[in-house]
């Protein structure tokens, strides 16, 4: 009997070693001799062959095990599923295969009460994070739980995936979660200091990139944790000077993704990327002014960035934005077809403030024809023949004046004056702060 147990243990160990090393032929041969090995687990952690394959990215072995009807939601000693281990180790191929096989993305482990979404955010695997979020949109989870609730799912200590990503310095995961509806000002339970927001946790971790993303989405610099500390004090305590400078309530307010854009029903991904880039660049200029003269000054732009404006062709000069006359038109309003640069588009959307009495936002309107903006796309680039006909003497003031008169109607001239009176971002700090003044108090936008 003792010899038999010894042989079984040796065979079991050989299976797990073969799975870990990716030896598909050996695994096949062993399972053909003894199909019951698919249900064997390691003695202490109770890891199955499927767990080991998922954690090590052995997708061929994983696929073979799933074809043999192995439960995709089998759990180990800590109630972790193979899907969680794939998310933990960033094995995107195995993760997608498990999701295709019906693995439950809403399973919780017994260590910290976390799901595969928490694991992907904590370990910074943005591709796995995006795959799980995409699966949640079309799975029973979206119906039973609701997608927004899943994105903000809490672990056993009250931490949402956004809290974990911010604390672990994962800016790409922070951006993805915010883009999918994560609550930027949500407080934790027992994770970190109770009552911490993602901004508190990013300040503690010293990630200026995470702080930048959170501020751009309207994170409140004045929100306090249960100890009464604002993120600025947290950054100071942990000696993150540059982070503290940006979080200092006395420094200029950051621009935020403007709420009026929520009225735009069709904002394609290319246009959104341009607008996000314009917003982040404006905030970088703000950061440079805040950090100027300190030991935390941001690095100078690369040579390629400095020369970017100088390399714009003369042909593109004919398509300068008629609001600022500085940037090339990159955004087009449909269906009227008027064009602006991304910076002025953001300034336009930040310009409309909600009514303090009703907290009602007005949709932005095109400054040229006054029509409500319902769709933004990337501006169309004219072909060479059209460009030659329109360019003429591009350096001539007459040419620019003629182009200005073509784009502006008399009805829209008041909007032009309102926007051109200021540079697109020169005085937009307060307007882009994501708050409105009412009875001498600041309240969040709805």
UniProtKB/TrEMBL annotation:
Its EC number is 2.3.2.27. The lineage of its organism: Eukaryota, Viridiplantae, Streptophyta, Embryophyta, Tracheophyta. Signal peptide: none annotated. ANK repeats lie at residues 45-77, 78-110, 157-189, 194-226. Keywords: ANK repeat, Metal-binding, Repeat, Transferase, Ubl conjugation pathway, Zinc, Zinc-finger. It comes from Manihot esculenta (Cassava). The keyword Transferase applies. Residues 395-446 are annotated as: Disordered. Residues 321-370 form the RING-type domain. This is RING-type E3 ubiquitin transferase. PANTHER family: E3 UBIQUITIN-PROTEIN LIGASE XBAT31-RELATED (PTHR24128:SF14), HOMEOBOX PROTEIN WARIAI (PTHR24128). Pathway: Protein modification; protein ubiquitination. It catalyses: S-ubiquitinyl-[E2 ubiquitin-conjugating enzyme]-L-cysteine + [acceptor protein]-L-lysine = [E2 ubiquitin-conjugating enzyme]-L-cysteine + N(6)-ubiquitinyl-[acceptor protein]-L-lysine. GO terms for molecular function: ubiquitin protein ligase activity; zinc ion binding. It is an enzyme of class 2 (transferase).
């Amino acid at each position: 009997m003792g010899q038999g147990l010894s042989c079984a243990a040796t065979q079991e160990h050989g299976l797990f070693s073969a799975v870990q090393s990716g030896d598909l032929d050996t695994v096949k041969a062993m399972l053909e001799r003894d199909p019951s090995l698919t249900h064997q687990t390691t003695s202490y952690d109770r890891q199955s062959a499927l767990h080991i394959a998922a954690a090590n990215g052995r997708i061929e072995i994983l696929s073979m095990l799933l074809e043999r009807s192995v439960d995709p939601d089998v759990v180990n000693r800590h109630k972790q599923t193979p899907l969680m281990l794939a998310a933990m180790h960033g094995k995107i191929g195995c993760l997608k295969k498990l999701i295709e096989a019906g693995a439950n993305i809403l399973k919780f482990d017994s260590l910290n009460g976390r799901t595969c979404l928490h694991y992907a955010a904590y370990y910074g695997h943005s591709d796995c994070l995006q795959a799980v979020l995409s699966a949640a949109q079309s799975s029973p989870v979206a119906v039973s739980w609701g997608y927004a609730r899943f994105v903000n799912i809490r672990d056993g200590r009250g931490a949402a995936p956004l809290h974990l990503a911010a604390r672990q310095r994962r800016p790409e995961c922070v951006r993805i979660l915010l883009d999918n509806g994560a609550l930027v000002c949500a407080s934790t339970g027992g994770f970190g200091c109770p009552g911490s927001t993602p901004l508190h946790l990013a300040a503690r971790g010293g990630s200026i990139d995470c702080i930048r993303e959170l501020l751009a989405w309207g994170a409140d610099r004045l929100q306090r944790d249960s100890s009464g500390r604002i993120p600025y004090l947290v950054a100071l305590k942990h000696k993150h000077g540059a982070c503290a400078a940006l979080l200092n309530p006395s420094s200029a307010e950051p621009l935020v993704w403007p709420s009026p854009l929520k009225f735009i029903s069709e904002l394609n991904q290319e246009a959104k990327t341009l607008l996000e880039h314009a917003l982040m660049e404006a905030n970088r200029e703000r950061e440079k002014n805040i950090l100027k003269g300190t030991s935390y000054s941001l690095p100078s732009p690369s040579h390629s960035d400095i020369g970017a404006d100088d390399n714009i062709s003369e042909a593109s000069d004919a398509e300068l934005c008629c609001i600022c006359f500085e940037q090339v038109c990159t955004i087009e309003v449909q269906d009227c077809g008027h064009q602006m640069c991304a910076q002025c588009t953001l300034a336009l959307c930040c310009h409309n403030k909600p009514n303090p009495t009703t907290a009602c936002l007005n949709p932005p309107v095109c400054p040229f024809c006054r029509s409500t903006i319902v769709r933004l796309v990337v501006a169309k680039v004219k072909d060479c023949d059209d460009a030659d006909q329109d360019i003429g003497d591009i350096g001539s003031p007459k040419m620019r004046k003629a182009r200005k008169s073509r784009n502006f109607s008399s009805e829209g001239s008041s909007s032009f004056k309102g926007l051109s009176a200021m540079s697109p971002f020169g005085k937009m700090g307060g307007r882009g702060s994501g708050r409105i003044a009412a009875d001498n108090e600041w309240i969040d936008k709805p």
